[in-house]
């Protein structure tokens, strides 16, 4: 290099000495252009001719100018292809970021999309009703005399399940809307209300939920006494078999299905196949565990049943009937501080009824209606409602099981309920009652009566009059959502117990569907703590220790609540049904 540089410099000096000027820049550019074309022809005849696909040699005429430009273009295309092939392949993560995966389509996508349709008043509220064979519903009504061992249920299934009208002889009721409704008639009342639901659909793809019009309560009521487990289970097994063959079932394996049973849950939770065990096993069937069953008393320890109100005697056909009744309850003069309607339970050592009756008898501000076999004012709807209407507080201890119809009759009368066990209302009717129970009721733990003999009268007198007035107003405002409107009509603006329950089921199913889409799974869910989840605004919140844990513990020594003792309570409840029949 250094030698070439020195020679060149020497040559330049000689040219200057001879008076010659150096080559012009134009010549230099011409040289570069020539070299460029030489490289192109070299690339064409050398690189492209080395194509891996072998072509037989043949004499080819010299290409024309147009074909030459085409060849050059092809050369550039080949060069670009080589560049692309030389690029490194993108990582899987880069592909994920750069491309948009098509959203997965679920069978219930259309149903969820209707929620966003603001022009559709039924968007997100459609209910699909299964067309069951008549043996699951209508046939039972035709054989209504077989629905109860002691009672002719035919009169109670009349008037769309409301029973015979009540005469307002003593002026206790309104002039219209009052019926002698059986406390276990919710099956037929709910089904007839569903027939009037404004958002029924035959298109299952847009259904927010699926209703199964099976009269589960009437079915088991026929066979509770004197029938083997095979007979008791027959209809439940046939129902599940029928449902599982339906295409609507396969969409969510029944998690979007619901049915109503107007009895307590223990009638459907037989633990074994022993002939001496109580009830049938409907709620323990694998398929039924996916469905939601609405019962008048649910289990604290299971997730597939939900409490709905017992039917009262009031079934208004119009909003105005409700408003008039509410105003009347506000204006009543209540001369008794508290009252109780019920019978003692001498065979149940855990019952506090005997102590409650004793306290009421000793008090000058308590009204008592003792209920027992035979004729009694306790069995008269008029006498019961009259007592509740004249009382500020109504005592509601456990019945044969956790709950009592009386609690809803008393609230209908504007009487503030006093509960002694959280299972009597607070964990049962979370769809229909405020979670803050102190706004509408008084809670006195059973042990305060059983062990400490606390004075009920003294406890209630400590509540300031202005607080009592606020609580009573809260109870009166709750009345619409605690009653079942006349199934043959429709309230204009008010939401009754049926409306509240249906919307709650829809909300539950919608949440499940969205969780499926988003891949959410509550792996920490403990079914035995179901009663705790019912008290949470968001079921996915962690379940902490609760002040009511002792009420729902299930110790092995048999001193606490358990499925077995609850089943025994169900048996006692059935025995005592004959007391309440008129």
UniProtKB/TrEMBL annotation:
<feature type="compositionally biased region" description="Basic and acidic residues">
    <location>
        <begin position="544"/>
        <end position="562"/>
    </location>
</feature>
<feature type="compositionally biased region" description="Polar residues">
    <location>
        <begin position="563"/>
        <end position="573"/>
    </location>
</feature>
<keyword id="KW-0735">Signal-anchor</keyword>
<protein>
    <recommendedName>
        <fullName>Exostosin GT47 domain-containing protein</fullName>
    </recommendedName>
</protein>
<comment type="similarity">
    <text>Belongs to the glycosyltransferase 47 family.</text>
</comment>
<feature type="domain" description="Exostosin GT47">
    <location>
        <begin position="122"/>
        <end position="457"/>
    </location>
</feature>
<dbReference type="GO" id="GO:0000139">
    <property type="term" value="C:Golgi membrane"/>
</dbReference>
<feature type="region of interest" description="Disordered">
    <location>
        <begin position="1"/>
        <end position="22"/>
    </location>
</feature>
<keyword id="KW-0812">Transmembrane</keyword>
<keyword id="KW-0472">Membrane</keyword>
<keyword id="KW-0333">Golgi apparatus</keyword>
<feature type="transmembrane region" description="Helical">
    <location>
        <begin position="26"/>
        <end position="45"/>
    </location>
</feature>
<feature type="region of interest" description="Disordered">
    <location>
        <begin position="544"/>
        <end position="582"/>
    </location>
</feature>
<dbReference type="InterPro" id="IPR004263">
    <property type="entry name" value="Exostosin"/>
</dbReference>
<dbReference type="Pfam" id="PF03016">
    <property type="entry name" value="Exostosin_GT47"/>
</dbReference>
<keyword id="KW-1133">Transmembrane helix</keyword>
<dbReference type="InterPro" id="IPR040911">
    <property type="entry name" value="Exostosin_GT47"/>
</dbReference>
<dbReference type="GO" id="GO:0016757">
    <property type="term" value="F:glycosyltransferase activity"/>
</dbReference>
<keyword id="KW-0328">Glycosyltransferase</keyword>
<feature type="compositionally biased region" description="Basic and acidic residues">
    <location>
        <begin position="9"/>
        <end position="18"/>
    </location>
</feature>
<keyword id="KW-0808">Transferase</keyword>
């Amino acid at each position: 290099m250094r030698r070439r540089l020195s020679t060149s410099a020497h040559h330049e000096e000689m040219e200057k000495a001879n008076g010659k000027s150096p080559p012009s820049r134009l010549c230099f550019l011409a040289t570069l252009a020539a070299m460029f074309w030489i490289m192109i022809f070299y690339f064409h005849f050398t690189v492209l001719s080395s194509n891996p696909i072998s072509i037989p040699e043949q004499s080819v005429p010299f290409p024309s100018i147009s074909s030459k430009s085409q060849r050059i273009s092809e050369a550039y295309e080949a060069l670009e292809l080589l560049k692309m092939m030389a690029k490194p392949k993108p990582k899987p993560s880069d592909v994920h970021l750069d491309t948009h995966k098509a959203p997965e389509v679920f069978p219930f996508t259309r149903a969820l999309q209707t929620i966003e349709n603001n022009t559709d008043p039924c968007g997100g509220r459609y209910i699909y009703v299964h067309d069951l064979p008549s043996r699951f519903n209508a046939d039972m009504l035709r054989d209504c005399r077989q629905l109860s061992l002691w009672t002719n249920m035919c009169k109670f299934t009349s008037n769309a399940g409301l029973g015979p009208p009540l005469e307002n002889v003593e002026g206790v009721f309104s002039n219209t809307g009052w019926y002698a409704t059986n406390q276990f008639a919710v099956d037929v009342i709910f089904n007839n209300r569903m027939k009037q639901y404004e958002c029924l659909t035959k298109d299952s793809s847009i259904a927010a939920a699926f209703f199964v019009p099976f009269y589960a309560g009437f079915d088991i009521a026929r066979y509770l006494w004197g029938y083997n487990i095979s007979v008791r289970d027959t209809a439940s097994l046939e129902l599940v078999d029928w449902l599982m063959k339906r295409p609507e079932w396969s969409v969510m394996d029944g998690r979007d299905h619901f049915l109503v049973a107007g009895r307590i849950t223990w009638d459907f939770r037989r633990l074994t196949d022993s002939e001496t065990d109580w009830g049938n096993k409907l709620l323990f069937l694998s398929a039924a565990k996916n469905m939601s069953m609405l019962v008048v008393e649910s289990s604290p320890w299971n997730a597939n049943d939900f409490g709905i109100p017992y039917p009262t005697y009031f079934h208004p056909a119009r909003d105005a009937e409700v408003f008039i009744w509410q105003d009347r309850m506000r204006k009543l003069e209540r001369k008794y501080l508290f009252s109780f309607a019920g019978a003692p339970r001498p065979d149940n050592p855990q019952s506090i009824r005997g102590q409650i009756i004793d306290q009421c008898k000793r008090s000058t501000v308590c009204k008592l209606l003792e209920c027992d076999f035979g004729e009694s004012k306790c069995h008269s709807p008029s006498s019961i409602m009259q007592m509740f209407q004249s009382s500020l507080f109504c005592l509601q201890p456990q019945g044969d099981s956790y709950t009592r119809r009386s609690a809803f009759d008393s609230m209908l009368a504007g009487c503030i309920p006093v509960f002694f066990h959280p299972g009597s209302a607070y964990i049962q009717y979370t769809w229909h009652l405020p979670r803050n129970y102190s706004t509408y009721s008084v809670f006195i733990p059973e042990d305060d009566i059983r062990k400490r003999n606390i004075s009920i009268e003294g406890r209630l007198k400590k509540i300031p009059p202005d607080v009592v007035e606020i609580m009573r107003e809260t109870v009166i405002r709750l009345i619409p959502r605690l009653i079942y409107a006349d199934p043959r009509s429709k309230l204009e603006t008010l939401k009754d117990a049926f409306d509240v329950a249906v919307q709650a089921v829809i909300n539950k199913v919608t949440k499940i569907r969205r969780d499926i889409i988003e891949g959410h799974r509550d792996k920490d869910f403990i079914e035995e703590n179901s009663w705790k989840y019912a008290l949470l605004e968001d079921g996915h919140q962690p379940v902490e220790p609760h002040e009511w844990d002792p009420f729902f513990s299930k110790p092995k020594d048999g001193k606490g609540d358990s499925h077995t003792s609850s089943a025994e309570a169900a048996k006692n409840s059935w025995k005592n049904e004959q007391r309440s029949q008129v």
